[in-house]
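INTERNAL AUDIT FORM
Audit reference: QA-55
Scope: verify that the stored structure record matches its stored sequence.
Auditor: D.O.
Record contents follow.
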Amino acid sequence: MPSVLRKDGVLLMGSGEVQFCTEDKTFCPIDVEEGQPDWYAIQTIFREGFKDQLIRGGGAEIKRRWEILLGENPFLSSFGVDDVYVPIGPWLTDQDDTSVYASKLMQSNILHLIGALRYRLVSNGLDEATIDRWAKIAKEEVTNMNPKLYVKWRYAWGVRNSLEWVPKPVDSITKS
């Protein structure tokens, strides 16, 4: 990073973790069983996908990792972690054209992710009929914007300072 980012350049990183929030921007409950109040198929599909990610070595401590990576980096003068809420579909009434476009794009992306997660979950041994039922309901939820949900994205940023970067010499490779 220090060798490619110029002084006052901004490093921007986004989390791949999808977090669903209700209309009032509170997290959707994650441990609600199917058929219970506040159960959303979309949340269930992504919860199962997140469990799969954890098994494969992913993690939920992205904010802490970024704080370590950016906060202890001598080549950054400042850093921060911010959250952005994007509606899934254009259900907000006071959106400008750019926001409407972003919310439609989010809706489309989530619909594509449902299919990708369906494949992954079934290939990992979850019951295909259950996953298909959840995927069908989740697609209806997203398409009909019922419930009205946001996706919360976490971003981290850092600003490059003027500290000079001097590359360390690489040990020569010897052939035996």
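Auditor finding: record pair retrieved intact. The chain has a mean pLDDT of 86.
Action required: none
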